[in-house]
Amino acid sequence: xxxxxxxxxxxxxxxxxxxxxxxxxxxxxxxxxxxxxxxxxxxxxxxxxxxxxxxxxxxxxxxxxxxxxxxxxxxxxxxxxxxxxxxxxxxx
Length: 92
Description:
The chain is mainly α. It has three helices and no strands. The model has no long low-confidence stretch (mean pLDDT 91). Its main location: membrane. This is CD225/dispanin family protein.
């Protein structure tokens, strides 16, 4: 790379972490787009690299949001089942 090549973030770390800890399908899509960024920059496709970077960031963000939503819904489900179990054992 020369000095005129812009630095475009590939968001690969965020993509990997969101895949491991949040939502596997969206995280994999994010990893695919993140892996394309450096190759497109090297080929001189700056617009394509920016687009791939934006998509990688978007899918990693949606994977993180989906992971949090699933965790919250799971917690609500566990608390609801625990409450119903406590009511059924208390004789009410």
